[in-house]
Every structure is written in structure tokens, then in C-alpha cells.
TrEMBL record:
InterPro entries: Brnchd-chn_aa_trnsp_Livcs (IPR004685). Component of the transport system for branched-chain amino acids. The keyword Chloroplast does not apply. Its main location: membrane. One of its GO terms (cellular component) is plasma membrane. This is Branched-chain amino acid transport system carrier protein. One of its GO terms (biological process) is isoleucine transport. NCBIfam families: livcs. It comes from the Bacteria.
Amino acid sequence: MESQSKKLSFKHYLIIGSMLFGMFFGAGNLIFPIHLGQLAGAHWFTAGIGFLLTGTLLPLLAIIAIAVTHSNGIYDLAKPIGKRYATFFMVMVCATLGPLFATPRTATTPFQIGFASHLSASQQPMWLFIYSLIFFGITYWASRKPAGIINSIGKILNPAFLALLAIIFTIAFLNPISKANNAPITSAAYQHGSILNGFLQGYNTMDCIAGLLFGIAIITAIRGLGQTNAKDISMTTIKSGALGIGLEALIYIGLIWLGATSLGKFSLSIDGGIAFNQIANHFLGIFGEVILATMATLTCLTTSVGLSTSFAEALNAKFPSISYRTWLIIATGLSFGIANFGLDTIIAWSTPMLMFLYPLAITLIILSIASPLFGHDNRVYIWTTIFTIIPAILDAIAAAPAIISKSALATSILKLDDFLPGASLGMDWLLPAAIGLIIGLTVHFISVLSRARTTQIQKD
């Protein structure tokens, strides 16, 4: 019989909330809301609402989905769709969060924030090479036994980093660069579609798919505090998330506002890293830049260790014939190589992957949470996913760099989008997913009614 589920105190909620915040928020999460604020200008708040949906709410729902389904990770969560699909989805998520995009970004983000603006265009490749070589060398060394000093450093750095951010916020609120509500809207897309575009910008945090990968760690921590009942675990996750992810949401809104106000002095930057450097210099001078660069580097280093470790552990568990150490070498080696393409290139090429993965992740999360309502019937999962995956592929092609999206083959394929509403907004998967869900639920309930009728006939 299941042991009595322990009632947790507010202190426990703070512990889990702090863990949630620490896992999801890194220096990379600073650059996208600031850039969003510069894009949206006067519409910064409505764009921020959309950003919070994908940047904070979905990651929380991802963890709740793992709790509701008693899954041991992303593979278990996706397994109702099929074992091969679950393996494919897990590998794609691990690669995206690992050496393809998120982990290389942990090196390029602090480099862009703290160093790029002080180097000429011709000098940047050489110094990025040296910086990323040292960065991922340390990542590999620390990831061999990641539970030691790197975690202790992280517990010190995160509060210090937030303290610096609080100083910048305080100064900015007391003496803003300009009025955010009067800021120019630098992107036409935000004139009438700020919420939706903010929603899509939230994909860049990668926190939704990170929640699928990291969720088991949160659930394990809650169980370690004495809770065993799935409903209690879900409620603890919600309450803790209201604290940890709630703080993250406040910081996001502050950063989006800060980006909008910066347009009073600075022009639209290529990325949020450059903008954040300019803002730090404006308020704190060169001292602020130095402190920001140092803390961003160290904070991103802890994130890099976490991502590299998760990648190696997840794939070693699925493919045990390849050792953890080998997977770790693959993670850090590839991350180093890809980091040297630069932050803007990484963002450009990660966008199509996220446009593909996010619709599949969103539908998987919703289905997992709602699965008790349809008896965890895998047919509902399968039908929804089948109808989601095709438009997700189309969105990925449309969002790819011009070398792919403007090719003759891509242009002919994208003609299919003419038949799907929301294609121009990157949301053409929504209607097909709903149709697939309806078909799956119809099949399920017809099956339930048929079984009930058969049972009644047998009784008669």
C-alpha cells in the first residue's frame, strides 16, 4: 500500500521554487526578453503576456505533465505515441538542449554580453574560439562529477547575479532611459500581433522542452521531501511554481520593459546580448560591464554543466552501450564547434528546430495532463500527433534561413500552407492539432460506448 503522503510547509515550497528558478533561469534568458522589448516598443506589455505563456506557463505545465502521468522522463511521457516516436522525440529534445543549440549558446551569450562590443569584427572569431575552448574545457572537467563544487558556485552566483540585476532594475525604474509606452515599434509584426509574436519569441528560451527533460528531477526532489501521491505532487509543483516561475515572470516583464525603454537612447540591436551590454554600461559604466560579463560567464557555466550532464545521462540511459563519458565528450566537443559560429547564427538555425518541436511538445503536455479524462488512450495521442507533425514541419521550413526557406523545393512545399489558417503567424499547427484531438477522442468514446454496449448485452 502507498505510504502516507507528507504535508509540506511553506519552507518546502520555497526550496522547490528556488530549484525551479535555478534550473530554468540562466544568463541566456536575459537576452530574449530584452530583444523582445526592443522589437515590440510601445506594445511591450502585450508582447510580454504572450512571452510569459511559452516562457513560464508551459515549462510549469511540462513538469505537471510528468507528475500526472508518473513518467520517469521525456521518453516515458511520449511513449503512448509509440516507442520509436518517443525515442525520436527524446533524441531531438536532447540534441536541441544539448550540443546543437542550447549548450553552445551558454558560451556565446556571455561572450556577446561582455566581450564582443569591445572587439572589432575581425578579432571576434579568434577570441570567441579561445573563450569557448576554455569554457567547454571547464564544462567537461566539471561534468565528470557535476554534483560537487559547480553546484556550490551556482548557489552563490545566482543570488549575486540577481542582486546585480536588481540594482540595474532599481536605477532604471527610478531614472528610466525613456518612457516604454512611447517607444517606437521597430518590427511591423508587433503593430497588431504583439501577443502572438511574443508567444513565438518565448520559444527561444527553450524552457518548455527543458521542462520535459528536467521535470523528473523536480518530481524526484518533491518525492524526496516525503510526498508520494500524484495529486499532492502536482499541487506542490503548482504552488512551488507560483513562487519560482512567478519570480521568473516578474524578471521577464522587467527585462521586456527595459528593452523598450532602451530605444530612447539606443537603436534596435541585432540581439539582446548587445542591448544588455549597452544598458549595463549606461547605468553602471565600464564597472557594470565587467561585473556583468564575469557573472554571466560563471552563471552560464553552471547551466552548461547542467545541460551537458543531462544530455549525457539521458542518452547513456537509453543507449547504455555508449558510456556516459563518451556522450559527455560528444556534448562538449560539438558544443565548442557550434559555439564558434556565433550567437546570431545559432539563434537563426535554432528557430526552425523550435518551430518544429514546440507544437509537438505543447500537444504532448496538454494530452498528458488531460489523459485521465480519456483513460490514457494512446489513440488520442497518436491522432493528435499525426495531425500536428505535418504543419510543424512546414513551420520549421518557413522559419529556416533563406538558403533553405527560399529554395525551390521549400517554396513548393510551403504552398500547402495556403490551405492552413495561421500559417503566416507560425501557428498553422493549431487547427490540425484540434482536428486530430477531436478524431482521437471520437474514436476513444465510440470504443468505450461499444464496450459498454457489449457488456450490457452479455449481462442480458
